[in-house]
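User:
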Amino acid sequence: MTHTSRRAFLRGLGGAALSLPWLESLGLAAANKAPAKRAAFFYVPIGVVRRGFFPGEANGPIPKFTSNRQALGNGARIPVGVHPLKLTPTLQPLAKVKDKVTLVTGLDRTFQPGTDVHAQCASCFLTSAGSFTVKQSPYPQARTLDHILGEQLGANTPFRTLEFSSNSHKDNKESIHFDNVSWYGTGHVAPSMRDPRKAYRRLFGTHELQAYRNITDLVLEDARSLKRQLGHADQQKFTEYFDSIRSIEKQVDRLEQMKSELNKVKLAEPAEAHLPRGEYIRVMGDLMVVALQTGLTNVATFMIGPERWDTPYLYESLFDKPRSHHGMSHNQGKFINDLEKVDQFHMAQFAYLVEKMDRIGEANGTSLLDNTIFTYGSGLGDGATHQYSALPIIVAGSGGGKVLNGKHVNLSATSGPTPKEKGKYVNPNQGLPLANLWFTQMQALGLKADRYADSTGLVKQLLV
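Assistant: Predicted structure:
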């Protein structure tokens, strides 16, 4: 068989093209070439219940709601350094991939006084600019890390970055800063794909034949004769890949049909509130993984939900009716058990994607996950206290063997109530800036820079 590119291998009628994962039969030279490095971000809004998430905080206080930023105590006073990873109740879904993830604690974010505590969470999460360093905005929000990474990692991909979201609500009670984690620059949002069908068509569709033919049928018809020329292992991989694409199509069809039926019923909430939350997150996550797998992009962001919206979601395996994550977070005394279930639910969706990426083989025998830095995080350390310190961060994958896995890296051993100094927020933990993590990931992925945003240095404990 003549060696050709993965993308050229499946080029169907009418210009339809479907990218392929690595296949040995399409060029043995690829096996000697290091797989591409990727970066992905899984953003969860409104923080977490600290008692269930962080090692050593199980006996910590149940916080009361405050509109000010206050830090909770760390009951265990875990020493600074690298420790064995202990899976707390919220982290239990990661059990199967425990050796491929690292918990990072003790990282803090900058808060710029003068705006709402939620407004800067997502919009500044990947920016990490210092207070009042951005003059044209009330937020310390500038170009986000994904777009900086995309310039180098995505130079030869069809999409330098791709942005995904599982917020389908259209009752936009808040500004775009509450609902977007990816930004081209200050005030210039990178719009995320929220509709599974539109996302599928953007990645795999054709204008000429979408109305008449299932895109997978179209490409399979053209590829069937070529498939016979693949080796046995590649034929299996080929089949698994297309089964995955078909599964995504079926999920998309099911969600569209369900939404159509719900729109016919008189409901107190919009139809989107009654869509199965986990299924929606997973189908958007599946699309992200396929895009990374096939080289459509090497950099992606996935925002799970918006900050501070009270419109509810149906956490289908947890509650009978749609619930407001934000509303529950302001009354932990009453809803702490339900909130912990939501945190575990979100972690289960992250674990699903981590496991899926770890099953996808690369040319050199590693996995897609092994060559990716996939970061779970939130812009708040706790939803009731609105603290910007001691954030929940998990790093999955090693970026090609550059990042430590299977450990708990603690960067701050102390905590306490948030002091104030002439109205300015003072970090009580004396933890490292979140920007140090982003600076470290840039270095691990091969980007050359002296610093990133308000970083003060590398998190050397994370580097192998």
